[in-house]
Amino acid sequence: MILGLDVGASFAKAILVDENLKIIEKQILPVEDLKTAALRTLNSFIRKIDEELRGRIGVVAASGGGSRFIGEEAFGLPVKRIDEITAIGLGGLLLANRDEGLVVSAGTGTAIVAVYNGGRTIKHVGGTGVGGGTVLGLSRRLLGLSIFEDLENMALKGDAGRVDLTVGDIVGGPIGIIPADATASNLGKLTCKSKAEDVAAGIFNMVSQTIGVLAAMAAKAYDLENSIILVGMLPKSKIVSKIICETIKMFGAEVVVPGDCEYASALGAAASIYRQFDSLHAQTR
Ligand SMILES: Nc1ncnc2c1ncn2[C@@H]1O[C@H](COP(=O)(O)OP(=O)(O)OP(=O)(O)O)[C@@H](O)[C@H]1O
Ligand SMILES: [Mg+2]
Question: Could you tell me which of 85, 88, 112, 199 has the fewest CB atoms within 10 Å of its CB?
């Protein structure tokens, strides 16, 4: 069995997978200190799983920014670092059960990876610094709040249409392929008097639409319009995934949000180890 670890800027995810890449156990913990998060998460996960399973772990496959602090061995287990782009690409493809796809990892920031041929070709498309960290940072300053669930509830009660300028506001109707109620300028109507709920809705809208537009454009450029795979923790938010998916569909592309989307990189890291075994066997056969 392989223990997949993904230590991101906000959350660390650990999973245990068997040789069929079935997820046996999983755990997610907030990251307080990036330097110690990998070891803390590993320690907590190893204690959580039962002893028999623990004895069957062959290697820890570690990915994500915080994995660089873990070293080559931890708690008696060998650790192998896996490139994050590979982990995102393979994990997204496996969760969505696809042969190719544009994997959009919406976390603290957003990374975009194009994957073809069952994961044999993986290309880093790029990404944007607009992501979950942007929601929290702007909300901290504008609303004095940074608890994600509270912000989400606030946004649900608000109306982004009261802080965003729509296409209809400016041109009086639809334009090209864009309907009248689409956003022309995120937060373009925001004032000191805007209600907190509307501000929260506007922040969620801006971040989600930015990710959605970028994903749709990248999918067109990489010929993957029928297979956008949205992963990361941020799409666990119903508001976020709804807006990202609506935006992508408005541009004529197709998107799925697979179950366990927050574990994509942890799964991909583990899968990449099995893949290395496979190619090694193929070479020695
Ligand atoms: N309950 C929640 N549901 C959905 N999203 C959440 C929730 N709690 C926090 N978030 C958002 O998820 C973001 C983190 O997502 P994720 O864990 O995928 O990123 P990360 O892997 O830590 O970061 P990165 O990959 O960019 O280094 C936070 O910035 C926050 O905005
Ligand atoms: Mg991440």
Answer: 85
